[in-house]
Every structure is written in structure tokens, then in C-alpha cells.
């Protein structure tokens, strides 16, 4: 359908080297968007996948843990210079550090909040300023989590960051929707990625998780492609400030 066609659009996808980010970058390119794949360390596999599409796809190295606000703005400018415009921002890059809350190290807290929340906010800010200046009806998609709704053991910083993603998505919507900018969030459940490897490789934990999911399986990164494309397209024109779970029904139990 024409409403879902992203031909001529330009999308930034952060954390595009693996997992969810790689799948969303692929989905955007398959829908016709040109893709700026932001990564920290691994991107070759993603670029090989994107090379099989008809879209123009370029990679941009950006270490969001250590990048300054100036450097975050500069990478957005670099993308605009390379492609001539920007229409879509997908904030997917994330990290997790595991430790009991009672002894949670400050360096873990700083790393997780910087990557998952602080960099996301400034990428949104830089993109929104461009959208407003150019009168572009931009689309921003933030990747939240089940822990935007729930607490979780040993992941206090991750939970704080993903709860923060829910909050800033709502606040930015309240301020920026009047400019024609759509900001929404996707909240993945248990997705089979490298970040979740310790869980799906542990037979006891894996069984506990699968037994709670009504769909009876882990999600795959590809399960997020359709919703991401929808939220990036004209079909989602009147969806503002939503956080949509993709969790196989986890939240209903």
C-alpha cells in the first residue's frame, strides 16, 4: 500500500549492527527508505544485508556512551549532508549492566543511562530541530522495553532508562506534535538477541520465560520490522505518544 511506502525517505537507525537495530534497518530499506546505520563496533553483516535492497545505505560510527552532545548533533548533520535530508529517527541503541541495586556501581549507572536515555534525548532534539526548521513531518521511534512498565531484578539502571524512554516520548509528543512530528515507542518483550543470550541459553530461565508468554516463544528481531515501518510511514499520521508492546502477550499475564 502507498501509505506504507517509505521511498525517498531517509532513516537513521542507531544500534544497527546487530539484533533489533539490524532488523529495523532492513525493514526500513525494504520499504524503500534510504538508511543511515549508526553503530559502535560491528556493522559489516548489516551492510551486507542492506546491500541486497535497492535503497542507498551508509554506515556511521558513533559511540553513544562516550559521545558529547556536540558529537551527537554532528552525526545527525553528517547524515543530512550525506543523504540530503532526514525523515525518520529510530533510537534503538542500548546496553545493560547487571548487578544488585543495593551495590549497583556508579559506572554501570552512568554507562546505561548515557547510552539508553541521554543519547536518545539528544538525537531526538537534534532531529526535531531539523524537522521543525525544514517543515518536515518527521517520525521518531524510540525503543522502550517491558521494563518501561515493570520492575526487574538486577537491572535497576536499565529499568530507569527504559522508564525514562516512556516519559520523554510522552513529553516530546506533548511539545512537538503541533509541528507534525510523530513520536512513538515500541516496547519489545523477550527478543532473541545477544543481549538476552544469558537467559535463552539457561534452560531453567528459558523455560520460565516461555511458559509465561502466551505466544509460547521468544520474539525474533524480525518481529519488530512491521511495526517500525508502520510508525515511520504516513499510515501512522495520527498516532502520537504511544508505546506499543511487541511481547507475545507477556504483559497480559
Record keyword descriptors for this entry:
253 residues, alpha/beta, Rossmann fold, seven-stranded parallel β-sheet, 8 helices, 14% strand
Structure notes:
Strand 2, helix 2 and strand 3 form a beta-alpha-beta unit. The chain has a single domain (2-192, 220-252), classed as NAD(P)-binding Rossmann-like Domain (Rossmann fold), CATH 3.40.50.720. The protein is built from eight helices and seven strands; from the N terminus they run E-H-E-H-E-H-E-H-E-H-E-H-H-H-E. The protein has helices at residues 19-30, 44-50, 69-83, 106-134, 156-176, 197-200, 203-212, 225-232, and strands at residues 10-13, 34-39, 57-61, 88-91, 139-143, 182-188, 243-246. The protein is globular, with a radius of gyration of 17 Å. Helix 1 (19-30) crosses helix 8 (225-232) and helix 4 (106-134) runs parallel beside helix 5. It is an alpha/beta fold and 253 residues long. A seven-stranded parallel beta sheet has the order 3-2-1-4-5-6-7, with helices on both faces. The longest helix is centred in the middle third of the chain and has 29 residues, at 106-134.
Amino acid at each position: 500500500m502507498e501509505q506504507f511506502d517509505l521511498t525517498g525517505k531517509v532513516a537513521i537507525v542507531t544500534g544497527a549492527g546487530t539484533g533489533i537495530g539490524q532488523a529495523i534497518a532492513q525493514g526500513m530499506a525494504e520499504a524503500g527508505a534510504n538508511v543511515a546505520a549508526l553503530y559502535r563496533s560491528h556493522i559489516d553483516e548489516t551492510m551486507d544485508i542492506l546491500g541486497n535492497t535497492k535503497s542507498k545505505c551508509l554506515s556511521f560510527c558513533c559511540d553513544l556512551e562516550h559521545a558529547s552532545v556536540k558529537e551527537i548533533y554532528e552525526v545527525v548533520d553528517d547524515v543530512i549532508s550525506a543523504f540530503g535530508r532526514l525523515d525518520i529517527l529510530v533510537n534503538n541503541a542500548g546496553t545493560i549492566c547487571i548487578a544488585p541495586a543495593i551495590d549497583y556501581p556508579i559506572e554501570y549507572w552512568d554507562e546505561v543511562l548515557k547510552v539508553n536515555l541521554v543519547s536518545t534525548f539528544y538525537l531526538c532534539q537534534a532531529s526535531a530541530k531539523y524537522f521543525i526548521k525544514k517543515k518536515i513531518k518527521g517520525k521518531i521511534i524510540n525503543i522502550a522495553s517491558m521494563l518501561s512498565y515493570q520492575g526487574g531484578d538486577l537491572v535497576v539502571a536499565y529499568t530507569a532508562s527504559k522508564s525514562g524512554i516512556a516519559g520523554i516520548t510522552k513529553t516530546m509528543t506533548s511539545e512537538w506534535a503541533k509541528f507534525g512530528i510523530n513520536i512513538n515507542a515500541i516496547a519489545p518483550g523477550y527478543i532473541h538477541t545477544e543481549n538476552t543470550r544469558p537467559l535463552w541459553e539457561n534452560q531453567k530461565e528459558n523455560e520460565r520465560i516461555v511458559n509465561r508468554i502466551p505466544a509460547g516463544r521468544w520474539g525474533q528481531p524480525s518481529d519488530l520490522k512491521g511495526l517500525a515501518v508502520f510508525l515511520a510511514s504516513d499510515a501512522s499520521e495520527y498516532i502520537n505518544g504511544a508505546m506499543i508492546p511487541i511481547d507475545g502477550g507477556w504483559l497480559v499475564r
